[in-house]
Design a protein that fits this description.
Helices cover about 25% and strands about 30% of the residues. It is of the alpha/beta class and about 120 residues long. It has a single domain (about 1-105), classed as OB fold (Dihydrolipoamide Acetyltransferase, E2P). It has a six-stranded mixed beta sheet. The protein has a two-stranded antiparallel ribbon with strand order 5-8. The longest helix has 20 residues, at about 55-75.
């Protein structure tokens, strides 16, 4: 189970899967069907792209980042949100512990918007 804190209220969700290290899909428990399934985008960090990797090393890093993110959500799974959505309509969430772990393992970079650097050597 994933715990999501929104405006001081704790909600629970089930992880359906992660696209890469910073984008996942959750199914919120006890929510109306039109709200139950949400794609979420982690803020404050950026991970390598899996689907649009520009080189083999980026793809390998993306797979590692996705695995670590999934493991984090399955074991610890504490997320925070203020309900805002990103430019692709995904619910924006934060997970400081996940961010710090990914960055320390060089599977993510700090990110606060704007142009992102590539992952290929």
């Amino acid at each position: 189970m994933v715990s999501v804190v929104f405006s001081g209220v704790l909600y629970t969700a089930v992880l359906l899967g992660c696209y890469d290290g910073d984008t996942c899909t959750l199914s919120f428990q006890e929510a109306p069907p039109f709200l139950a399934t949400q794609k979420v985008r982690f803020v404050d960090f950026d991970t390598p792209e899996l689907g649009s990797a520009k080189c083999v090393s980026e793809r390998k890093l993306a797979e590692k980042a996705r695995k670590l993110t999934q493991e984090f959500l399955e074991k610890q799974g504490l997320l925070y949100t203020d309900g805002k959505r990103g430019k692709y309509g995904r619910l924006l969430v934060s997970a400081p512990d996940l961010r710090d772990t990914l960055i320390s393992k060089k599977l993510a970079r700090a990110y606060s918007g704007g142009k992102r650097s590539g992952w290929c050597d």
